[in-house]
Amino acid sequence: MSNLIEVKNLKKYFSTPKGELHAVDNVTLNIEKGKTIGVVGESGCGKSTLGKTLMRLHTPTSGEILYNGTDIANMTMKEFKKTYRANIQMIFQDPYASLDPRMNVLQLIEEPIKVNSKNLSKAEVTSKAKEMMDLVGLAKRLEGSYPHELDGGRRQRIGIARALSLDPDFIVCDEPVSALDVSIQAQILNLLQDLQKERNLTYMFITHDMSVVKHISDDIAVMYLGQMIEKSPAKEIFRETIHPYSQALLSAIPVPNVHIKKERMILKGELTSPINPKKCCRFAARCPYATEECSAKEPQLREIRPNHFVACHYAEKFVNKA
Length: 322
Ligand code: SF4
Known about the structure:
Bound molecules: iron/sulfur cluster
Helix content: 25-40%
């Protein structure tokens, strides 16, 4: 299958009074059409900045973002908005914060359609918004309701309807269920999966929670301090986690069986600063296996097993260790 998105050596740095913050540093990945890549890592690892940079909400510092083979990273914002904005959409973490409290459900879903489809009549805009409500399972009786009158799940359905209203191919889902109760999380994940099958959507699913991406992702990329440190098909990474940081993330997934005791890997040590980082393994200060080489040389992402890439000097040693 062909790639819808190809990211090549993408960097997004921010200038701060203390120096350059390397929020996304040399990330390379592909996403096949109709598939989901889960991007995981703790707060501040750059996963949301990566998603926003793909959306062109941040201008990339360097690198390429190929959408269907066309580089959207280096085109003008005017050209991007005119040609590609509708194709690439985002679902945000906090649906309440991303919705205008003065608008009702129908108006909220009509808004992006009005802005992006200026040739549609008022009746056509309303009809499309109602179609989207139906698609995401929002009952007709909620048309006049305001965000504060709805629960988190319904508010997130509005966010999904808004994103889908422009018929995108690619959706960046930025922690779309982390603000929701567990039972509602499952409903929203199922809805996203159903919509993907129905509309052949491609997702980047950003989360700090490995258990959330386990069932929804085809591939998983683990990020640490702006860099991608492990990437593989989802099934493979859960069967054989190689990078010590990914092992720690996976060890935090609870097991739904009181008779199984799972040892959690607790990380000690300080986070390395992402401002003007040294050329070394950025995980070295917290890695239980770090050596002098780790603090002196930056590990490169290497293919350790077919389609399984890891950035660790000793990756071969950790195969079969998880
Ligand atoms: Fe740990 Fe060294 Fe591997 Fe980094 S390169 S993950 S510090 S063993």
